[in-house]
Amino acid sequence: MSTYALEVENLVKVYRGRRSLFGPRSEPVRAVDGLSFQVPRGAIFGLLGPNGAGKTTLLKILATLRAPTSGQARIGGIDVVAQPLGVRRHICMVLQETAVELFLSVRDNFLTFAKFHGLDRQVAAKRAAEAIALFDLGAEAERKVQDLSGGYKRRVQVAKVFMVHTPVLFLDEFSTGMDPILKRAVMDSLRKEAARGRTIVLTTQILSEAEELCDDILILDKGRQIARGDLNALKLLTQSVSEIVITFDELPQGIAPAIAALQPWQSKIAGSTVELVLKTEEAQALEAVSALAKMGRVLRVEIGGASLEDIFVELTKKN
Amino acid sequence: MSAISAILYREGKIRATNMIFVFWDFFYPLCYLLVFGVSMSAALGAPVSIPGVNYNSFFLAGVLGMASFGIASNSSWSFFMDRDNGIFYEMLTYPMSRAEYLLGKVAFNLFIAVSQALITLGLGAWLLGIRLRLDFLPLLFVTVIVGTAGWFFFYTIFALRIRRNDVFNGVTSVLYFVFLLASSMFYPIDPLPRGLRTVALCNPITWEVDVLRYATIGYGHAPKLALEAAAFTVFAAICFAIAVRGLHKE
Known about the structure:
The complex is a heterodimer. Chain A is an alpha/beta fold. Among the domains of chain A are: 1-90 and 205-237, Rossmann fold; 239-318, 2-Layer Sandwich (Alpha-Beta Plaits), CATH 3.30.70. Helix content of chain A is 34%, strand content 28%. Chain A has a six-stranded mixed beta sheet, sandwiched between helices. In chain A, helix 3 (106-116) packs across helix 4. Chain B is built from ten helices and no strands. The relative contact order of chain B is 0.14.
């Protein structure tokens, strides 16, 4: 058995150009362009990238929904092209679309899902009840899913994956449409699943989510890897970014030109609070804070390193 | 096998949640026969080119053919809806092969088709006094099964290829119009104008309905029917191959 939950080698996916009715075929698109990486068992692995970076295509290849143009991918040592059925027995997926059985009740959605995954009736009923409780769906359990709001449909979709114990779980933008309380509960559940040895691969546009959840992050752009590592390793790639927040008791006169003179990467003045991101060494950032602080009475100062969002923006801009 | 039973379970659950679905699934051809067939029979009498056969007896095969076509059309619509809301793609990540997925879907359609045929034949013959060829019943059920499977694979091709709801609805409407009306379903094709008759002769529904007509009331010429049965089987096999290919591309 492979020590890795996921192994990808030189993976390429090229979509043929579309032919318009009277015009020539458009250029082919390299959605995934020579990716190679491995993910250890039990990791929470984040795939980040701007729209069109190739995240969803990569997940679709790993979940056997798309065939790669070249290269190899294995889930638990099983090749996704040679043994797709074997791979499907190891995985569970939450798609970007709200994929639910619209004509069935919430409970029947769970029972049907369980049936596909080979759970016997008693186990299915027990796990359905657990999923309903975990996702606070008790009041909606017997309602048809087509009558529920988008947020509840999403709950039903995500709740299903906690009913089965497949070794690998793919989540494509799983938190879309979830309220913050539910999102937190789901994130806690995902951490517990990972602690039990389940490997979780997720894509997200919400970087704070990845920052909080992921042990390991791969940043993609135009189908290629542009950075890989845990949050600390990624921060090393952009050490020269500092986030500064200063709150004055009253906004000092002339603060705007003073900030402009520092040539910040980003800046914002809201009320008596100044927020700026400087691309500079730490010592110079401290000097800047000191200079600004002298302009008025300071109530609060915060200096932080780069957030995942800063890293993401910088790396994807560079690329 | 468990994957196919899971598909059957799912389709059955979806149907069972709506009593209109259940009624329509089982009684639609019988209703058609009792309303359209009886009205046509009363208004126009027997088809002119088939002496000794009343319209109800003639139309029984047509309504069974229409039912197999309708089941496939409805099934492809549900296929399309599944893809539209994403559950289709999610299901493709479940532990089952693409072939199991298609077989499960077709098995459920066959269950509905055979149930419909039993109800239509039993009640239709009883209520309308249609004299069935009971010795041909095995042929009739084989034709219902192959016919329903063939049309299911045919429609699956369109459901997989067409991405837009409006285009899909337009295409299925055109298919309904052409396949049902340019065929031997509602009337004998011999008296039709030459162009229309040629289209009807090339129409797989005509092939299916002709065999069904032979199997229900014994009307038809065996050598021509053998050719039509073979042609329909080839048509169904080609549709199956294209549908599986399309599903692998998904």
